[in-house]
Amino acid sequence: MSWQKRLEEDSKRYIWHPFTQMRDYQEMEPVIIERGEGSYLIDIYGTKYLDGVSSLWVNIHGHCRKEIDRAIVEQVSKISHSTLLGLSNPPAIQLAKKLVNITPQGLERVFYSDNGSTANEVALKMAFQYWQHKDVKGKTKFISFKNAYHGDTLGAVSVGGIDIFHQAFRPLLFDVFHAKAPYCYRCPQGLILPRCSLECLRDLEEILALHHQEVAALIIEPVVQGAAGMIIQPPGFLQGVRELCTRYGVLMIADEVAVGFGRTGKMFACEHEGVNPDLMALAKGVTGGYLPLAITLVTEEIYCAFLGEHHEFKTFFHGHTYTGNPLACAAALANLEVFESDKTLERLAPKIKLLTNRLERFNDLSTVGEVRQKGFMVGIELVADKATKTPFSPRDKIGIKVILEARKRGVIIRPLGDVIVIMPPLNIAEEELEELVEEIYHSIKITTEGAS
User: Facing residues of 43 across strands?
Assistant: First the structure.
């Protein structure tokens, strides 16, 4: 037996893959990625695939970017890890300063953790404890949005709003207020932009008017609800949320785990509407797709509420073993340096326009209900009936079939149900981007219309 076949057998025998129905996986030909080059993933047989979802929304500048490789190697030669509990290290300090300088105004303090879920857990706990330290004991609840996704740990799941992910765990979760979220393609009020006058904000205002004295914070994915199917909020919605939080004295948590670091065309999604949150969660693209690292940024006001004498126990009693890991912080610093040296955001703008143009033909497919795009974040919602917007039955497994067809055509993508996601590395070459979109178009056409 070849070593490749042995790996395939062992993968099926020993690994439980996340968000994967393992019965289906056992019947598939596994793809085992051995290395990467630029926008490509290369499997154990040497087959190359365009990385159409940036290895789950994390890769920014391509695989094996020499500047980030070098930064990690240089840091390894010094030290790979030391605790941040009462100690510090140069990369963690330098990165914190850099992040404070580039994130929205008012965010002054950096707390490190490991992933997007923990970044949001930290934000929730800080917001809760902030009010306790301010001697406002009644503010113990949170507001989140329907269709929200903030991670898979129990606090993050509590503020989530996707039943297929979260319903099984309801008995373990704390109660939150779920405000209606905009989903313009399937507007629950049956309204159409711009005549709707952001009616979707009214539900949030009603919750705040009735319950603001109970609410510690609101958490939102700014501009795009990613895991919900790349659902894009209408212009003015995010700013409206910020204004309501300010008016009713509720902290605003911006979960920029998925939308941060250039994905929407700006470094941070909050910049699209000039919004300054009270807390911000970052992860995914912060290291350019190299190492796990997450950040929760807060205002000086929140930070100062935790200062006190030792015996007052105002300390934020939360931490992770690999908090502020020097290797991850070194990778993140190099990632941000490449943003500057490559002028990544400036060079991204024409590629966003190219992507918009190439996506137009998808609307002609009989099974494409809507194409949603914000920067380099794209969701293509597939439907059984375009006129009525009737979805496919889950038994049809349409999204899975499309990505398997794309895999045959040298493209790695991953669906969200029957929403096909496109989110390539920001530095993808224009010809590679055109190839990616072309192959996804044909994959949808072949799978849903039976034609090449």
Answer: 33
